[in-house]
Amino acid sequence: MKKFLPRSLQDMRKAVLTVAFVLAAFFLVLGAEGASAQSTQSGSVGLTGTISAPPPTEGAVISFPTNGQSFDELPVIVRGICPDGLLVKVFKNNVFAGSVQCDDGNFSLQTDLFVGTNELVARVFDDLDQPGPDSNVVTVDFSSNQIGAAPRVSLTTNFAKRGANPGEILTWPVILSGGAGPYAFSVDWGDGKEADLFTEPFPGTIDLKHEYDEPGIFNVVVKVVDNNGTAAFLQLVGVANGPLSQDTDAGVDPESEGGLVTTKTRVIWWPAALVVPFAISTFWLGKRYMIQVLKKRIERGEHPFADI
Question: For the chain, which end, N or C, has fewer CB atoms within 10 Å of the first or last residue's CB respectively?
């Protein structure tokens, strides 16, 4: 139909449609902004990513034990002060010896020691695993009553902190070395359940498994005793995450432990409800106006398409 219309009418029709599309885009952008604001107000987060942040600038301080102390029994309690909310890792002679979450500005964990001299250092880490400054260095000694030259049993891991959603299996690999098999394990997962008890015939990587029922942060204490009666201890931080809810009307329960994070899904339909009737009405009005113009030209005896 376009090629039979006068050019002025074609320009008018284009202008009307242009205005309609501009208004449609405006309403759609307005609707998207409203949805974004509504999602933020409901406590939901629609974007995921890693936000860079500077590493911690304040370190921990070991207050116990003190320099020069000697021990002949294990485990040894290491405690001190720290920036609240950060993860504290303790090292003995530069070997990972355990971890704990800083709570109310304090930390306390149990660990074992090497026979002889041990240099203890605490180091804080943020949620991006960025380290802060080292603590003071505390030098202590450990004397063992073990008979013979066989190496003592030892425990370590590559994961100071590990988590899974409640109801899912958390798998934690620990590295068992030294001592003599078989080895008896005791794992207290910190959630009030009975400790896991089992034996392993040989050293190597052992997968510890547990299922948390509720979200939270828990102190995990692993103890192993070898056939010679020597023991090793390792304290870690277990996390039961709050799973995302798929319920489109779900909300955040502020009283639940761990604060379950939920999302809201909303379909913003009102921009389309406004734009579609507007576009139809403008097209109908434009068409009606063009017919009236052509009719008046014919009544005046003018050629209806004279300006083509």
Answer: N
CA dihedral 19, 25, 27, 32 (to 10 degrees): -170
pTM above 0.70, yes or no: no
| Rounded mean pLDDT, 97-101 | 96
pLDDT digits (tens, 9 = 90+) for 237-278: 999 986 433 333 333 333 333 333 333 334 444 444 554 555
Residue 33: count of CB within 10 angstroms of its CB: 11
- For the stretch 154-176, pLDDT in tens is 999 999 999 999 999 999 999 99
Please report, for the chain, the start and end positions of each structural domain, with discontinuous segments joined by +.
2-43+275-299, 61-240
Distances (CA, A) of 280 to 19, 268, 286, 287: 13, 20, 10, 11
What CATH number labels 61-240?
2.60.40.10
Residue 62 CA from chain centroid, whole number: 29
Q: Residue 26 corresponds to which tokens in the numbers above? A: 């405006």
Cβ density class 276-293: b for 16+ within 10 Å, e for less = eeebeebeeebeeebeeb
CA distances from 300 to 153, 286, 295, 303, 307 (A): 110, 22, 9, 9, 15
Query: At which residue do the structure tokens 């090793």 appear?
Result: 232
Residues comprising the chain, all counted: 308
